[in-house]
Amino acid sequence: MMQPQASSWQLPPAMADSAASVDSAYNFIFWFSVVFTVVITGLILFFVQKYKRRKGVKSEPTGHFNKLEIFWTVTPSIFIIFLFHVGFSSWIHNATAAEGATEIRVHGKKWAWEFEYPGGSRTSDLHLEVNKPYKMIISSQDVLHSFFIPEFRLKRDAVPGQYSFIAFTPTVVGPAHVFCAEYCGTSHSGMLANVIVETPEQHKEFVATLGKKPKLCGTPAVECTVEKWGESLFVEKGCPTCHGMGGSGTIGGGKSPGPKLAGIFGQPQPISGGAPVMADENYIRESILKPNAKIVAGYNNVQMPTFAGSFTDDQLDAVISYVKSLK
Question: What is the DSSP string of 51-97?
Answer without folding.
Answer: T---TT---------HHHHHHHHHHHHHHHHHHHHHHHHHHHHHHSP
